[in-house]
Amino acid sequence: MSVTGRIEEVKSEALRAVAGAGSTAELENARVKYLGRSAELTDIKKSIGKLPPEDRKEVGRVSNVASREIESALASRTKALAAAEREARLREEAVDVTLPGVPYPKGHLHPTLRVIDEVVDFFVGLGYRVAEGPEAETDYYNFTALNIPPGHPARSEHDTFFLDEGLVLRTHTSPVQIRTMLEGEPPVYVVVPGRTYRRDSDPTHTPMFHQIEGLAVDRGLTLAHLKGTLAAMARHVFGEGLKVRLRPGYFQFVEPGVEMDLSCFVCDGTDPNCKVCKGAGWLEMLGAGMVDPAVLEEVGYDPEEYTGFAFGMGPDRMAMVKYGIPDLRMFFEGDLRFLKQF
Amino acid sequence: MRVPLSWLREYVDFDLSTGELVELISLRVQEVDGVSRLGVLEGEVVVGEVVEFGPHPNADRLSVAKVNLGGREVQIVAGAPNPYPGARVPVVLPGSVMADGTKLKKAKLRGLESYGMMMSERELGISQEHTGILLLDDTCEAGSPVEDYFPVGETVLEIDVFPNRPDLWGMIGVARELAALLHTELRIPEPAFGTGGEPTEAYTLRVEAEDLCPRYDLRRVSGVEPGRVAPLEMRRRIFAAGMRPINAVVDATNYVMLETGQPIHVFDAKLVREGIVVRRARSGEEITLLDGSVRTLDEEMLLIADEERGLVIAGVMGAEEAEVGDETTDVLVEVANFDGRNILETSQKLGLRTDASGRFERGLDPNMVGYAMDRVTGLLAEETGGRAAADTLSHYPEPVVPWEVPLRLERAKLLLGMPVEKEEATGILRSLGCEIQGEDGRLVAGVPTFRRDLRREADLIEELGRLMGLDRVPEDLPGVPQPGGLTSGQRKTRLLRRTLADLGLAEAITYPFGPDRWWRDLGLDSHGDVVRLKNPLSQEGSNLRSTLLPGLLDAAARNRAFGLRGGALFEVGRVFLSNAPEDRDASLRFRLTGELPASASASGLMGVQEYPRVGAVLAGILQPAGWNVAERRAGFFEARGLVERLVPGATFEPGGGGFLHPGRRAAVRVDGVEAGWVGELHPEVAGKFGLEGWPAAAFELDAEICEPDPEPRFEAYANVPAVGRDLAVVVDRQVRVGDLLEGVRSLRSPLLKELRVFDVYEGGQVPEGKKSVALSFTFQGEETLTDETVNDEMGRVSGLLEAEFGASVRTS
Ligand SMILES: [Zn+2]
Q: Which of B291, B510, B530, B539 has an alpha carbon 20 to 30 Å from B369's alpha carbon atom?
C-alpha cells in the first residue's frame, strides 16, 4: 500500500475514534494515539525525508491535511463533549430550591416608635423641627407655665408621679413646647415625641405611655391651618382619602379646644360590628386647639401679633388601632412574641 | 352627667332621634359617652284594675290575678304578693320590649296562661324597688296608657362634662345649650310657694370663714309631714339621673341639685343648737359622718357647725348630728357657695369625694344660690306639706355681677379660620345668656354669672366656633417659613435603632421604674444617686433606673418563662441619676416658678440628670441551627461585635461592672472617653434575674457616643492588584491578640490595607502554655508590589512580633 493510502486509512480510523469518543478522557486518548509523539502519522511525517524526492511533496501535503482534519474533528468533538459534560454536571449540582436560604435577620422596631417615626417624618416634611426635653420635669414647666397653677383642679387629674419637691415625671410632653418657646422667637414649628408618665395602671392605662405633641406659632395661624395640618397627618399615617371631623374639646392650654376624629379606615362607618371603630364609623385621633393667649404671654410672645395651634396624640393608641393590638399593656413587657411581629 | 330625655323635654322642645341628639351634642357641646335605657323601650303599658287576686294553684311563690284592662279581662301570673282586688297596677302587654332587650311573650307559667306582666318600680325604671308590684293612684283609669301619668321608658344620655363647665352639671344648663343649638325657647321653672312657716330668724347665721364661703343662704321650712315619700315622677327622674330616691325632703334637694347643679343640704331644725356657724375646723377636730366614718379635720377645712358642734364638712358630707330623718318636721335648708379649690383639697385630704364635692370643686355660680333656694323651698312646701318661712338668712357680702368681655369679629375670624358674621355671632352669644352691645366689628358681651368659664375674648370665640359648627372650618396648610428636619443627634438615634433591628435584635420599651432588688442583685450602690419616686404605684417601682440592664433582664427572664429558648432585645432610652443642687432654695424656686438666677444653669438646678443610653441583652440561643447554619448562642463576642458595629474605633479593656463575668467583660472607650461596657453576665446575677444556666451577654453604651454610620471620607486607591499574605505566630498564652494587632498597626505601614485574625489555636502541635495566632495581611501600593517589597513588610512585622511579644513565626 502506498504511504498516502496508509495516511488516508489512519485518518479514517482517527476520525471514527474521535466521533466514537464518549468523554473528554477518551478523546484525549484518541488525540495521543493519532496525533501524539509516537503516533503513526507523526512517524510518517518524521520519515518524509527518507522518501523518494518525487513522493515527498505529495506525502507531506496529504499528511498535513490529515492532521488538520483530525485536529478539527477533535476540537469540535471536545467542545460538544465539554458542553454535554457541563450540562450533566450542572444537572448534578441542582439543589432543592424549596429549602430555606441562609437566614438574614429581620429587624423589629417597636410599634409605638414605628408610629412616632411616621408622624415625625410627616411633620419634618412640612418643615417642622423635632424638640425633646427632660422626662424628670419641674413643677413649673409641667403645670404652672401651662396654665395649671398650684391648686388647680386639673392637677389632680394628672395622677402625677412625684420625685423630689417641685420635681415630677412629666405627665405630658407639653413642657417641651414651653421650653421651646422660651428658647426662641416665633415662628415656631415643632413636633415633640416622648415618653410620659401617669400614676395609673389598669387594662387601658399604663404608668408610662407616649405622646406626640406639636406646636405652631406664627402670624396669622388659624383653626383651619390646624385642621388641614392634622387631617393631612392622619391620612399620611392611616391612609389617603380618610375624612376628619372636629368636636369641641377641653384642654387647659388651648382655647378654642377641639378633638379630631378620623373616619374608620377599615369600614368607613359601613359596618356596625367593625372591630376597629366599634361601629361608630369614627376613631378618636387627637386633641388640639389654638394656643391659649395666656400661654403665649407666659413665654413672652405677644398674643395680638402671634397666634398658634397645638396638638397632642397618643402613638401607643394609634399603634393599637393601626396594627390591631388589643391590649396597651403588651407594649411595655418586652415580650418577644409581641415585638417580633413588628 | 346623666340626662334623662323626658326630663330634658320639660325645659326645651326637640324633635330629634336619640342618634341625632347624640351626634348634635357630641359635635357641638361635649362628648356623649353613652346612652342607657330604662323601663319599657317599645310596646304598651296600660293601667290594669285587679279584679281577683289569689295564690297560684301549682306554685307556692306565685300568685295569679284577673285584671281588667278597660273593657277586657286577662289572667296574669305574678311573683309578688302585694296586689289586691281593686288595686291599680301597670301592665305591660305581650310584644313589648324591655330595657334589657327582651321581648315579652304570652307565656304559660306553671300551667297557667299569663297575658303580659304586672310591673315593679325597677321594671319601669323608677327605682331599684323590686319586692312588689307598683300600685298606682286610684284615680288612674283602667285601660288607659300609663304614659298618660308618667313615662314608662326612658333614654338617658351620659354626657362627659368638661371641668370648666359646671353649668352642664345641671339639667337646665344642658337644656340651655340645646335650645341655643336648635334656636328654640328655654323654659326655666318659676318657683312659687306661699309662706307662713316658722321664721328662719329664730336661728342665727354667722360666717366666720368668709374667704372660703362667698355666699351662705339659710331658710326654714316647718310643718313638714314626717316620713313622706316623694311623688313617683320625681323619684323616677332622680333614679334615671343616677341617684337613689330616699324620702321627700332629701329627694327635693337632690332633684334641685340635678336641675341646677347646685348642691343643697338640709338640717333637722330641731337638732340645730342656736344657729349655723360657718368656720374653719379646729386642728384635730373630729366628726362622725353619715357613712359612719370618723374624720379628723385640720384648720384649712371648712366646717358647717352650730354653736356647739360640727354638722357638715362643708360641701363634702354631713354628720349624723342634725341630719333629717323619718321624724323630722322642721328643716333648715342650706344653699351655699364654697371656694372650689378648698373643697377639692379637703376632699383629697380626706379621700372622700361625693356628688356635692365634685360639683363645688369646679367653682359654682353664687347667683345660682337664690334660684335653687326658691326652687327647693317650693318643692319642699309642695311635696312635704311644709310651710316656708317668709325670711331667708343670707350671707353674700360681695355679690357677683355679670362681667363684660370685648369681642372683635376680625379676631374671631382669624382664630377660627372662617368668616364670622355679626348677626350669627350675636345670636349665638345671646342664646347662651349673654347681653350683646357694640358697633361694627367690635362687640361687648355681658356674660351671665353661671358661665364662669367665659372670661376672655378667646373663650367667646370658642363658643362661636362650636355653635357655628366646627365642620364649617375649612382645611388649610400654613406655609412654614423654616427648614425642618431632624438634628444630627436625632438622625443618629434613629440609625442606631434601625441598625440594631437590622442586625436581628428586637426593640423593646421597658418601664424605667424598678425595685431596690435591681440594684442589690446587680451589686450596685442604691443609696447615693438613685432617683426615688415619692409615690410609686408599688414598691416594685419605687426607683428610676440608673441602667437599662435590669429592665431588659426582667424582660429576657419573662420570655424564658414563656418558653422561648433565647433572643436579643435592645432599648434606646434614658437613665436617671440624682444630682443634688448646691443651692437648694434656688433649685426649689426654679422648679416651682421657673425663676433662673443669672449665675446658675438650669440643668444644675433640676436635681436629676438624664442620660440617653442604648442597651441590649442577648440571652440563650440567639439563632437556632438551620440545615445550613450553625446555632448561635449569646456570648461575649456576639455582644462585642454589636458594640464594634455601633462604635467604630472603640477600644476594649478588661473592666465593666461586678455584675459581669470577671473574665469576660470589658470597658468600652472611644478616644479614651468612657463609652460603656460589654460582657457576659455573672452567673450569679443571671441566676438572680431568672436566667440561671443560660448564656447571657449584654452591653450598655452612651447613645450619643455611638456612630453607626460615621461620615465617610474618600481615599485614593490604585488600580493595581492587592497582595495577600498569611502569618502564624506562636506566643505565650497570656499575650493578648489585641496588643499584637496594635503592635502591627504601630508600624504604620503605608502598604498594609487590611489586617485580620483568622485563627487562634491552642493544643495539638502548639507547645503547652503557648498559643498560635494566625493573621492575614492585605498589601496594596500605588504600583504593583514586588515580592521583595511585600517580603520586606512581612519581615518588619515578624521582627516586631518577635521582639515585642516573643513570638516565634510558625513555618508550616
Ligand atoms: Zn370601622
A: B291
Candidate from A117, A123, A152 with C-beta closest to B494? A117
pLDDT value for B203 = 96
Can you tell me the distance from the alpha carbon of B8 to that of B14, in angstroms, rounded to the nearest whole number?
Answer: 9
B611 interaction partners in chain A (CB closer than 8 Å): none
- State the CATH number of the domain containing residue A146: 3.30.930.10
Average pLDDT, chain B: 93
Residue B810: its pLDDT value, please?
Answer: 72
Among chain A residues, the shortest Cα distance to B559 is held by: A335
Rounded (10°) angle between helices B171-182 and B248-260: 40
Specify the pLDDT at position A337.
95
CB proximity under 8 Å: A 179-238 to B: 187, 189, 195, 199, 201, 207-208, 216, 218, 220-229, 231-232
Q: What class is the B489-595+602-702 domain?
A: alpha beta
Backbone angles phi, psi at B312, to 5 degrees: -145, 135
Residues on chain A touching B607 (C-beta within 8 angstroms): 163-164, 167
Q: Are residues A58 and A147 in the same domain?
A: no
CATH number for domain B2-31+160-182, candidates 3.40.50.300, 3.30.56.10, 3.30.930.10, 3.30.420.40 = 3.30.56.10
Under the banding of pLDDT at 50, 70 and 90, the label for residue A252 is: confident
* A7-36 average pLDDT score: 90
| Domain enclosing residue A191, as ranges | 111-339
Is A103 inside a domain boundary? no
Average of pLDDT values for A65-89?
A: 91
Residues of chain B with CATH 3.30.56.10: 2-31+160-182, 403-467
Task: With residue B260 as reference, give the H or E element that holds it.
Answer: helix B248-260
User: pTM of the prediction?
Assistant: 0.84
pLDDT at B662: 96
Per-residue pLDDT, B753: 93
Alpha helices in B103-201 (DSSP H): 121-124, 171-182
Residue B60 confidence (pLDDT): 85
> Per the CB < 8 Å rule, is B473 touching A257?
no
CA distance A306 to chain B (A): 10
Identify the segments of chain B with pLDDT beneath 70: 811-812
Contact call for B361 and A153, based on CB within 8 A? yes
Q: Which fold has domain B403-467?
A: Phenylalanyl-tRNA Synthetase; Chain B, domain 1 (3.30.56)
A1 has a pLDDT exceeding 80: no
- Cα of A322 from ligand 1 centre, angstroms: 12
Q: Are residues A43 and A176 in the same domain?
A: no
What fold characterizes domain B200-395?
Phenylalanyl-tRNA Synthetase; Chain B, domain 3 (3.50.40)
A162 → closest Cβ in B456, B473, B535: B535
Tell if the CB–CB gap between A144 and B567 is shorter than 8 Å.
no
pLDDT of residue A342: 95
- How far is B387 from B380, CA to CA, in rounded Å? 8
Cα separation, B291 vs B286, in Å, equals: 14
- C-alpha of residue A173 to centroid of ligand 1, in Å: 30
Q: Which residues contact A58 (CB under 8 A, 6 or more apart)?
A: A4
Cell numbers 325632703: residue: B249
Closest by Cα among B631, B556, B381, B460 to A103: B631
CA distances from residue A237 to A86, A120, B321 in whole angstroms, order as listed: 54, 10, 62
Q: Is A163 on the interface with B (CB under 8 A)?
A: yes
Cell numbers given for A177: 413646647
